[in-house]
Amino acid sequence: HPLPTVLHFCHRYGVGDRAFFANTKVPANFFSCGMPLLEEPTLDIGSGKYLYKQPPFLDTRMEYSAVIEKREAFMVCASTGFLNEAALYFKERHCIGNNANVRKAIRLHDLPE
Predict the structure, then answer these.
(1) How far is CA 90 from CA 29, 54, 65, 87, 100, in A?
(2) What pTM did the predictor assign?
(3) Strand-pair partners of 13
(4) Which of 73, 93, 95, 106 has a 20 to 30 A CA-CA distance from 65?
(5) Rounded CA gap, 13 and 55, in Å?
(6) What is the mean pLDDT of residues 38-62?
(7) What is the mean pLDDT of the chain?
(8) For 22, which DSSP code?
């Protein structure tokens, strides 16, 4: 199947308990030298193992079909990858010395609204 030509980041995307992306949860100072990168999702999302999403700070659980799980997993992985790649590009060009934080430590799922 061909990949989408446009990704619209207006929704909240999630798979399982932790794999999550929402553009409104990305810290305002994400593109700075000291800010870590986004934590990457596990390699098995989209495999059919997580046919649900556990939204942040809610006790409800949304069940998925395998097709929806793959779509959500694609968006979580693509969004996380694109932002991390852009942040690394910024840090390589603007951070002096070894002060660029490249740890993948930000969990969007756990950040407050």
Answers:
(1) 12, 32, 38, 5, 10
(2) 0.88
(3) 21
(4) 106
(5) 9
(6) 92
(7) 91
(8) -
Residue 36 corresponds to which tokens in the numbers above?
A: 């870590």
Distance CA 76, CA 40 (A): 9
By the 8 A CB rule, do 73 and 45 touch?
A: yes
The one-character DSSP state at 65 is -
Residue pair 69/10 in contact (Cβ under 8 Å)? The answer is no
pLDDT at 8: 75
Q: Is the pLDDT of residue 5 over 90?
A: no
Q: Is 37 helix (H, G, I), strand (E, B) or coil?
A: strand
Helix (H, G, I), strand (E, B) or coil at 44: coil
Give the list of residues 6+ apart from residue 88 with CB closer than 8 angstroms, or none.
Answer: 37, 102
* Most confident listed range (8-12, 18-22, 33-37, 46-50): 33-37
pLDDT tens, residue by residue, 67-83: 999 999 999 999 999 99
Cβ proximity of 34 and 52 under 8 Å = no
Residue showing tokens 């790649």:
85
